[in-house]
Amino acid sequence: MAGTWPWQRVAQSARYNAQTFRRSPLAEISGALGDLGTLLPLMAALALQGSVSLSSTLVFSGLFNIASGLWFGIPLPVQPMKAIAAAAIAEGASLRDTVAAGALVSAAVLLLAVTGLLRRLADVVPVPVVKGIQLGAGLSLVISAGNSSLLGNLGWLDRPSVLDNRLWALAAFVGLVLTQRMAPSGASSHARGGPLFLPYALVVFVVGLAIAIVVAVLHVGGGASHHLPRFAIWHPHVVLPHWLDRHAWAMAIAQLPLTTLNSVVAVSALAEELFTPSLLESLALSSSSFTPATSVTAFGCSVGAMNLVGCWFGAMPVCHGAGGLAVQYRFGARSGASVVLLGAAKLLLGLFLGETLLDLLRVFPRSLLGVLVLAAGLELASAGASLNTSTSHASLRGSGGEEAAQGGSSFTAIQKRERWTVMLMTAGCLLAFKNDAVGFVAGLVCHGAYRLADKLEERRSSRNLLRRPGHGENRALLS
């Protein structure tokens, strides 16, 4: 779509979206629900502890969904910045700290995108360090699921109520284990089994929402009375981010490599792989002049713009993500129509219900919400499993010259062990010090130490090659 005006790009994308939706409306609607399993528990947990504004998050994430669907023309997700969300939930971060962290990341990504330095920066940060941040952030979510605000203080039968206790948590956990094979397993570009229509996290969230409605109406378990959502026009309030707070900077530093690699570079590579001309032909849309926008610069500018707008109103820090794109594709989405529909629903909820939804979130069963946060953490932590596989390097192209040199998964046993050590060093220090920035620096230092050892070994080997038999100090004085 090079050489077209912005309104022409939007018009072409809108036509493609409309054609695809008319061809397979159920698949597009199903695909729109694919990434809610990560969004809902994180948004609910952050809103309940006051780290984000629920109404602003719904309004702005809905607007971003609509804008992304119309501009890019693909089911591009708008999902939480997971490293920031994990740290904010674990540490109970304030609203001003959370939005400042998201805005700082977005400002850096936007600067890197417009200056053309984004891909070069991606080359500097090694994949094992990024995987370590993912692993550590995911395990932080797993740990936070067991704290006192979620699963920690639950009883077996009547604490806090018969509709929220360890039995419900156990049932949800068993369901999570039994439905593992039902979850999309990756970014397969042409799934033949058809889209799944039963996302585990969405089902559990709907069950929890039904229980919350019952509790709110019948006041089960005593305590303060709660109300059902009611009509309430959104009244935006300006929030001044805590720009200089050290917690905000720590969260931003940890999120930055994750965003640049997974939310920009990986999304670009995956979009190019999934939305090929052959796919358009299979959709009987070859006559369309639409070509999806898949450049790193475009995705970087998008991530930068979103939070630099939403941060002033308390919206949750958001980004794009290769995992979310793969999941929504797996559930059937093939165009931006899916995320436009999702964005419209979120926008309406934020505009006309807004903060009144918090009453339901307050009585949402902690047993189910805790398992949802656990599931989201496990999903994020599972990214470490692909560290030494070709899939990891195909999606994180350009990241770390070592990967390109090794040609995908052709690492030696020693190299694989070293890469696992770097990832575990990053995740371990993140968890031990409860600081994502410390884990990031520790991973870089560990990776640098291995690379320095490689350089020293190369120099030693080159010197040995120069010493040929019969020459040098060991040469006999008399031949």
Automatic annotation (TrEMBL):
InterPro entries, sorted: MOT1/MOT2 (IPR031563)
Keywords annotated in UniProt: Membrane, Transmembrane, Transmembrane helix
Transmembrane annotation, as ranges: 58-78, 99-121, 133-155, 167-184, 196-220, 290-315, 336-354, 366-387
Classification via Pfam families: MFS_MOT1 (PF16983)
Name the record gives this protein: Sulfate transporter
Upper classification of the organism: Eukaryota, Fungi, Dikarya, Ascomycota, Pezizomycotina
